[in-house]
Amino acid sequence: MAEIKEKVGRYIAAKNLFTKGDRLLVGLSGGADSVCLLTVLHELGYEIGAAHCNFHLRGSESDRDETFVRNVCGQMGIPLHVAQFQTADYAKEHGLSIEMAARELRYGFFQEIMASQGYTKTAIAHHSDDNIETLFINLLRGTGIKGLCGIQPQNGKTVRPLLCCNRQEIMEFLKERGQDYVTDSTNLTTDYVRNKIRLEVLPLLESINPAARTNILTTIDNLNEEHKVYAWSTGRMEEECSFVRDGRLYVAKEGLMRSPSPLSLIHETLRDCGFNRSQLLQILRSMDKPGRMFYSAEFVLTIDRDYLIVDGYDEMETWEGEELHFDGKQGTVELPFGTLLHYEIVRAEVLEIDKSPAHAYLDLSKCGTKATIRHYRQGDNLVPFGMKGRKLVSDLLTDMKKSKIDKKRQLILEFNGTIAWVVGLRSSEEFKVDEKTQKVLHLMIDKD
User: Fold this and answer.
1) Chain segment 18-43, per-residue pLDDT in tens
2) From start to end of 283-396, where are the E strands?
3) Distance set, CA 23 to CA 40, 115, 377, 381 (Å)
4) Which end of the chain has fewer CB atoms within 10 angstroms, the N or the C?
5) How far is residue 107 CA from its own chain's centroid?
6) Can you tell me the distance from the alpha carbon of 14 to that of 100, in angstroms, rounded to the nearest whole number?
7) What is the model's pLDDT at position 163?
8) pTM value?
9) Which 3 state secondary structure label does DSSP give 327?
């Protein structure tokens, strides 16, 4: 077996993941994979720090893991950043699964540390076996070619240098180095889909064909190359058969039906409009029925004689917004996509909290009397309610599966340049109501 350190070094260079000029933040759980990544990058001479999240989900095991990573980083002389999260409470409060809550908290913490400490990339310890498991998970959910391309080696500032290695290579490396690690007991159960694939499905496939893992990885590589051709060709066809005019998207029926795969082309052309696969199939079957209409959450598609016409497709300029003044009286402000209602509540009154995302409750003493409401801009960030670390609004919107059109329309409410509310979605921890709050600013968005 090739030395894993040399193999990872070649992979980093081949994929252009980062250079010796980068400062790397390594996500360190204490498990074999992340300890291997930390050790390899340290031995390769990169400038690194580590970030560990104690999610307090596994009792004494969680505290054991934190103690372990502190000792490992201390022995190697690597800076360590640790966050404590009450993940179960956060998940319940925000209506998230435990897995999604942990992911949101983890990546929010990574972003906070990167911004405050000057790290340029975050390195995550996904390896090739994770890649195979991801393919099967996406396959079970139903997916297209992109979903079968597996985990990418780089996604923005997140890099995965161990994708070139498998679990066996990682374990052998740690054994050769005499490097200890901790084991998450939940990884040994079959309670989760990924674990069932790892512990039951893949061993069964290997009993049929010992080269199953190697062949699946080859398939993933092939699909990644084929996706490049798919994206290029559908992009060209989309440009040829569609255009935007006066806030409407027009798709030429003749060009659409002349393509090798009308379903693929209409899927790519309408990918941000919220139409599901069943609707797309119905649209294609109704091409000879002018006047028929289809609806998504935000858009209306009308079949015309020569075109599919999508209303609400608005390539608008960014609305810079307006100033709002709070004087203790109830008021309303007309917005591009709804009405904002606001009024003050004296804390002596009974505060009945409406937990729907259309409402926000802010400590008025932390706000001031003047705010700005505007459209979201790249680089906007806040400390989401219930979190400790800052999070990019773009990542929050992506995690909530918002389309490009939704992102264009997203409104932000801020006081003196600090975001207090991603309107209709999430308020800021920095403005939260607590036991010291005397006056509450209640905000509500009405889209009717």
Assistant:
1) 999 999 999 999 999 999 999 999 99
2) 293-295, 300-303, 307-311, 322-325, 331-335, 338-346, 359-363, 370-375, 381-382, 391-392
3) 15, 12, 27, 22
4) C
5) 9
6) 32
7) 96
8) 0.65
9) coil
